[in-house]
Amino acid sequence: MAAQNVIICKNLQSELQNFLQSVKYDKLFVLTDSNTLELCLPMLKEVPQLQGAPVITVEAGDTNKNIEQVTAIWMRLCNEGASRNSLLLNVGGGMITDMGGFVAATFKRGIHSVNVPTTLMASVDAAVGGKTGINFNGLKNEIGSFYPPLCVLIDSSFLKTLDRDNLLSGYAEMVKHALISNMETYRAILSFDLDRVDYTLLNQMVAQSVAVKERIVEEDPKEMGIRKALNLGHTVGHAYESLSFRKGRPVLHGHAVAAGLVSELYLSYKKCGFPMEILSQVVYYLKKYYPPFFFNCDDYEALYELMTHDKKNEGGIINFTLLSQVGEVQINQSVTKEKVLESFDFYRESFGI
Ligand SMILES: NC(=O)c1ccc[n+]([C@@H]2O[C@H](COP(=O)([O-])OP(=O)(O)OC[C@H]3O[C@@H](n4cnc5c(N)ncnc54)[C@H](O)[C@@H]3O)[C@@H](O)[C@H]2O)c1
Ligand SMILES: O=C(O)C(=O)C[C@@H](O)[C@H](O)[C@H](O)COP(=O)(O)O
Ligand SMILES: [Zn+2]
């Protein structure tokens, strides 16, 4: 696959202007959510190509990453003269880049899209790599496509208005990227003080983190093999997230991933010999900053059932991505149901719930 077109911006407006000048399209549409409309779109007000462009806005929150909102966006595009040569500029977090990407993939069988990520989650992960989609039937990203944007323009100055919970949410994916990389990155990630955020350092870490994803996606864009590394923490994490939606107490994606990492590193320790010392360090770090995800034994069967829908599964077997060491990824690992339930216990004991 061609290299992902990811630009770490020094001057977002002029770099977006230049990029848009370099591509051919007939009409540009902007997609935002209700928060990014107010907080982020004004940071693009000098870009000439955006003057007079229709802005489509959906209500913020991952529960809106659904087919009803997709239909509403398709409708606006349809009624406002979008053609196959139109371009959709997604300005927002992962909710917007996932859903906008999916709309772009499907409208008239595919129009151009460009992502301007505005959260940490979208900057290091969601906006890059071409996985697009929506939640469906209570399951995360159940409907979607691989459809890379033409370009991703990352500018960390958006992060200044991001609240702490969403900063933590994105940081969980950076912890994941570090765990699948090497000890040096891992140590740097676990030394970062999330109580006193050094934004200059965070900017550098964003560039390094997204580079981890870019390298893997270039090698395996459609998740036939090594891209499954990027799903570390998500087999259990998505089950925790879906359960939280079902209970009407939604947790942020990255918070569920952080909890999923704890459970899956436990499985890594049990099945692949991942060092207990590192597992303890990760638990200590995550426990220090992340709120606990509350569930009890009565939820175990529901969580296990949710995991039977994971996209890495084959022939009814739940496939995990595990680690034998930091940077040593073991894909397609099956684990007994007993051990999976034990990994829920491990999370609850570690977080004292
Ligand atoms: N496609 C992928 O590879 C991939 C990777 C990771 C996550 N995801 C998906 O991404 C979604 C989560 O993304 P997210 O964490 O960015 O959530 P999000 O897009 O819902 O944004 C979180 C909140 O922050 C607000 N916000 C956005 N930018 C802001 C800013 N600059 N200042 C203040 N507030 C701002 C949003 O309005 C929203 O309320 C999930 O659906 C997840 O499944 C996809
Ligand atoms: O890009 C990938 O590949 C990932 O798995 C990144 C994940 O952080 C992301 O949450 C992704 O959307 C999960 O995909 P899914 O296939 O498990 O739905
Ligand atoms: Zn994720």
From TrEMBL:
It is found in: Cytoplasm. It comes from the Bacteria. It catalyses: 7-phospho-2-dehydro-3-deoxy-D-arabino-heptonate = 3-dehydroquinate + phosphate. Its main location: cytoplasm. Its EC number is 4.2.3.4. One of its GO terms (biological process) is aromatic amino acid family biosynthetic process. It is an enzyme of class 4 (lyase). Residues 170-313 form the 3-dehydroquinate synthase C-terminal domain. Residues 56-167 form the 3-dehydroquinate synthase N-terminal domain. Pathway: Metabolic intermediate biosynthesis; chorismate biosynthesis; chorismate from D-erythrose 4-phosphate and phosphoenolpyruvate: step 2/7. GO terms for cellular component: cytoplasm. Keywords: Amino-acid biosynthesis, Aromatic amino acid biosynthesis, Cobalt, Cytoplasm, Lyase, Metal-binding, NAD, Nucleotide-binding, Zinc. GO terms for molecular function: 3-dehydroquinate synthase activity; metal ion binding; nucleotide binding. Its cofactor is Co(2+); NAD(+). Gene3D superfamilies: 3.40.50.1970, Dehydroquinate synthase-like - alpha domain (1.20.1090.10). InterPro entries: Dehydroquinate_synthase, DHQ_synth_AroB, DHQ_synth_fam, DHQS/DOIS_N, DHQS_C. Belongs to the sugar phosphate cyclases superfamily. Dehydroquinate synthase family. Catalyzes the conversion of 3-deoxy-D-arabino-heptulosonate 7-phosphate (DAHP) to dehydroquinate (DHQ). This is 3-dehydroquinate synthase. It comes from Parabacteroides chartae. The lineage of its organism: Bacteria, Pseudomonadati, Bacteroidota, Bacteroidia, Bacteroidales.
